[in-house]
Amino acid sequence: MSAPLLSSTDLFAPAPARTGRLGQLNAGVKLLATLLMTIGLLLVKDWVSVGSIFLLELVALRLLGLNPLKLLGTFWPILFAALLSGWSTSLLVEKTGETLIHWGVLWITTDSLTVGVTLALRGLALALPGLMLITTTDPTDIADSLAQTAKLPARFVLAALASLRLVGLMMSEWNVLGQARRARGLGSQDSLWQRLKTLVGQTFALLVQAIRRGTRLATTMEARGFGSGKRTWARVPTYSRADLWFFVGALAICAAGIGLSATAGTLLWMWQ
Amino acid sequence: MQTSPVPSFRSDTSSGASIVAENFGWHYPAHAQPVISEINLRIEPGEKVLLLGPSGAGKTTLLHAIGGLLHDEDGESQLGTLTLNGYTPEDARGVSGLMQQDPESSVVLARVGDDVAFGPENLQVPHQEIWRRVDESLAAVGLDHLALDHSTSALSGGQKQRLGLAGILAMHAGAILLDEPTANLDPEGVKEVRDAVLRAQRLTGATLVVIEHRVEIWAEYVDRVIVVNRNGITHDGTPLQVLQDARAELIAAGVWVPDYSPEFPAREAVAGDVLITAEKIAVTRQNPSRRIIKNRRADLLAGRSPHLGLQPVAQNLSVQVRAGEHLGILGPNGSGKSTFALTLAGLLLPVAGELTASPELSQGVDMKDPALRSDIASWKPADLASRIGLVFQEPEQQFIRSTVREELEFGPRHIARSRRQPVDETQLHVRVEELLERLRLKHVESANPFTLSGGEKRRLSVATALASAPRVLVLDEPTFGQDANTWKELVLLIRELLDESVAVISVTHDLDFVRAVGGRTFVLDSTHRVSTDAASRRAL
């Protein structure tokens, strides 16, 4: 088995992808680029622009040292969801154009297939930058950029960051709670209703633990002078030439996809 | 970040804070009684104070008040006055630093350096100065060998507490306030944290106030011991004087005083029949996939000994569990003690080796094939719970009902329901009453388990396991963080169970406990360690 891209229980674990070229880019720039790509993709709805943006993303990520296909494989539920939405769309939209398949309720035409493929491609093209951001970025760095560059309230950003650290703890806590319930005799032989009750109880116990731990953590933070007042920052987000190129590259991919489609005369804006 | 050796803290920025209380108390408006009252004391800069008292005496409230963490929203909660260096604690932000019991709540951020820097950032220390303080503080607590971007989740409990201490030192706090800083740690962690605290105090000259119910950890190192109860301070003086004068009072309050351990008459160990046999088993924490479970079952049915492709934490474990005998499982942290016990209790699958229940124990198990009937790991939860009771380290993890009585009734009712048998209400009532009586829970029978005191929660968690009348009882760190009174009760209860020929297995660091209940011990040591070569090969 190869090392996972993200450790399942520790969101802050130093994943190999975080030390690569993408990992060294500024987190805020990556976040902004991802947002702009998302907006760009939501503005168009033809398969040429969406498809070419997706292809350019694949090439760009590959060049930056990330294997985009492996990335989609690791997060297969997203891949699955994109393909499924494409498939069901092609079955459900208005049937114009030539009929390709018509077996009973299964009726796909050239136009409905195009709409479906476009939707699936757009889903994948939207997912890739997001996955790149998650796998190559330490949450601490995003928080620094959000608080220091985007000037979001530090109190809010740091509280979110501190609680994110508890997610991994909650996962192992969940396992222990499950074992404790099995030791009490709850489990596989129970009725569906009983199992649902167990699940609700286990969730409640987890929440109680989480709230208590959260309260204690808040006490620690307050005891270390955390409040609404001004603060300085030990880490200063740095911006380099590489960040600029990355940002320009992201914009260029969007522009190239839309430009290509416009040249080919296939461009369809969202509102058209 | 380059590190340079820092001989000592700058004396101009950090010296001890003085703490003065006059008739101080705290009374929450909705409560009938104040949590604490009539506190009069003067702690000089650099003094080292141990704060003792029964649980519920308001020690934590007092410490939080000194730390400026209590806020008198309506202006009526605070009684008297309390000052830190002459200021109210709320105004003296950053003058004190507080550490709590749970190591997880000592860590705020994900990277070691960032976590230490968190306090200075909040106190608006300039950027360059922050990193100087981070280096200096990590060195003071002996964590300077760690990289600044080392993950805080990867630290041990003792290391997390030392990191929390470094965070306090980096604020250049004049008062270090510690609320049972070692209660959740194993003996090595206790020493490690205690030594780091004393070293840091020497370096900075900070005032130290520590709450702890195990007196011997701090007694010989502090200048002064203060004993409080709800009505004020009962003793205040040198450790020698106070521990002499207040000895009886402290023992009654369940405080562990030095050279005192509850006495028990020697017990004749009468081991009965073998109930569980483990033969060279390897144990793991990993969750098996459905496929692994299926293959294991097929192997057992075919008479083969299954070997699972999971990463073991310990191996070559052979032991016999006998009726009426106590088995203490000992060993350093991370040696796989708890994993071993959970495997014996049927909650985890053994990776390799034979783990079998005797015909006596497995009689009546709902499994047709004899190979599966003797395999504890294959039992259905209801069959398991009626034979092997398990008590987790944190009692709250096991509570599933909203009152103490329902909690005790749950096991027998659920097992009857699983077997589609009617519940014998009279018998159940008798059993529950007996447990309520025996474990002194009668007065809280309709209370919510989550609202009980620490000792009551511990007793209830043992009682719930006993409600299904198991032949084997497995306890994970039963005496961890318990006061001397609860400790004594546990020992007596377990001795009674042994007399009733229940087999008891305890995972523990507490040698006094093992001595008091008697029986055999099993020590996980180097012969059980899984070689790291094999481990890393398997992990790839």
From TrEMBL, chain B:
Q: List, alphabetically, the GO terms of the cellular component aspect.
A: ATP-binding cassette (ABC) transporter complex
SMART domains assigned to the protein according to its UniProt record, in alphabetical order: AAA
Query: What InterPro entries does the annotation carry?
Result: AAA+_ATPase, ABC_transporter-like_ATP-bd, ABC_transporter-like_CS, ABC_transpr_CbiO/EcfA_su, ECF_ABC_transporter_ATP-bd, P-loop_NTPase
| UniProt entry keywords in alphabetical sequence | ATP-binding, Nucleotide-binding, Transport
User: Is the keyword Nucleotide-binding assigned to this protein?
Assistant: yes
Q: Does the keyword Transport apply?
A: yes
Q: Which domain of life is it from?
A: Bacteria
**GO molecular-function terms, A-Z:** ATP binding; ATP hydrolysis activity; ATPase-coupled transmembrane transporter activity
The segment(s) forming the ABC transporter domain are: 19-255, 295-539
Coiled coil ranges (UniProt) are none
Give any Pfam family that matches.
ABC_tran
Q: Which family does it belong to?
A: Belongs to the ABC transporter superfamily.
PANTHER family xrefs: ENERGY-COUPLING FACTOR TRANSPORTER ATP-BINDING PROTEIN ECFA1 (PTHR43553:SF24), HEAVY METAL TRANSPORTER (PTHR43553)
Q: What is this protein called?
A: ABC transporter ATP-binding protein
Q: Which organism is it from?
A: Rothia amarae
